Amino acid sequence: MKNRKMVVLALASMTLMSSLFATATFAGPPKKSPGKKAPSKKPAPKVDTVADGKKVYEKYGCGNCHAIGGKGGNSGPDLSKVGAEAKHDIKFFTEKVKNPKASNPDSTMPGYEDSIKGKDLTNIAAFLKSLK
Predict the structure, then answer these.
(1) Which among 20, 28, 81, 95 has most CB atoms closer than 10 A?
(2) DSSP states along 71-100
(3) What class has domain 47-130?
(4) pLDDT of amino acid 62
């Protein structure tokens, strides 16, 4: 009688463990609860993107009008800490380079919509965002 209880208990334990294992293995990832989103973290611009953006900045002579760290022109705003402003994200800089007058009608900066495009535009925006 005692052996029979041990066998039943052992079989019940093995059945339970098998069931738990199968559920964990085949159930897939845990479901997200509705209405809750994972916090969105925007990745920092890649170092090579920032370095390439600096090359674009130099190629188009931006330093003739803008200073960074005390080096460059003074007819345009100093850009040394322009990326520190929370509202200055990649999209902001992309639009600012393409059409500066869109956000500031009095801007004397020419628009670069026709000359800085694609990857160069993304890279210069990443470079400007990195200036803090």
Answers:
(1) 95
(2) EE-SSS---TTGGGSTT--HHHHHHHHH-G
(3) mainly alpha
(4) 97
Assigned token pair, 35: 């209405």
Whether the pTM exceeds 0.85: the reply is: no
Tokens of 132: 């803090």
**pLDDT beyond 70 at 128:** yes
Q: What 3-state class would DSSP assign to 1?
A: coil
Bigger pLDDT: 123 vs 45: 123
Are residues 94 and 122 in contact, defined by beta-carbon separation less than 8 angstroms? yes
The number of angstroms, rounded, from the C-alpha of 71 to the middle of its chain's C-alpha atoms is 28
Q: Where are the domains of the chain?
A: 47-130
Residues 6+ apart with CB under 8 A from 78: 66, 67, 68
